[in-house]
Amino acid sequence: MALLVLLVLLGLGLEPIQDQGQDHLRLRHELRHGGTRNSTSCKQGGEERVREVVGARCEEVVTIKVPGAAQLVVMSVEVERKFVCNADTLKTLEEIGAVCLGQRQFCDQYFDTPKFDLTLKDMWLRKRKGCWELKCPTTADKAEETSGEQSKAAAMCSRYKEITNLPEIQLRVKEDSETETSPSQEEESWMSRSNLVCFAEFTTVRRSFTLEEEGVQVDLDEADFGFHVGEIEVLLPEGGDVQSALEKIERTAGKLGLTGDKRVEGKMHAYLRRNHPEHFARLLSEHIL
């Protein structure tokens, strides 16, 4: 029943973004709007809607009651290339016709065991705006390895599977750590039994832009520890066309005039190098960073 309802909602353009457990499912619907930033919410029956308008984009988040929704696992694949941004980046974005979607601020908290069971497997557990997310590495497709140009494009990008279903996250954490735990909706109890501690916390101010290239978003991030980085991102459903995403990112990088053949470090990379050099060194030795 839950799967049938989800398929219908996807057909209507609603994107699942967070399974809240029990029988509630959050979905996001992107609309076009010409106004400025504003936010409204309303409740009707078993449905709650929160609509936020940022520049030309309007996202409507709908929380609905769906029997069996807790059994659904919502996953997507994030394909991303980071780049060094500077004072000229905004001018370049304007010149290539990028549309600013607005600016927002969020705080990220990252968790692991004292032995780094998760991050040493390139798994990143974080909490953002009250929602848990687990980023896990994905493997490259064989088709990407047959061409030098394709391999170069793939080497410049990171690729992670994003899991937002809390029971699934708890299961993955149990499998990849040395702790014994069982799924629980009680946050403190689950974290304690899983031996999870916060090893990084920082706030980011993000300005987002969209291009004519469908599905491509450019983010300019400024972290509160004095670090700036740009990101070109394409978000795919699990099993989506990764090669197409890499090509879109490569074209966007060309429009931005990006050069170089080495990956640019991200916020977490820089944070650990500055604040937790021992953890950073372990990840380097295991070729995670």
UniProtKB/TrEMBL annotation:
Keywords for this protein: Acetylation, Cytoplasm, Hydrolase, Magnesium, Metal-binding, Signal
EC category: hydrolase
Subcellular location: Cytoplasm
Cited InterPro entries: CYTH-like_dom_sf (IPR033469), CYTH_domain (IPR023577), THTPA (IPR039582), ThTPase_euk (IPR012177)
Domain CYTH: from-to ranges: 76-275
Signal peptide: 1-19
Family: Belongs to the ThTPase family.
Task performed by this protein: Hydrolase highly specific for thiamine triphosphate (ThTP).
Subunit details: Monomer.
UniProt protein name: Thiamine-triphosphatase
Biological source species: Dissostichus mawsoni
Organism ancestry: Eukaryota, Metazoa, Chordata, Craniata, Vertebrata
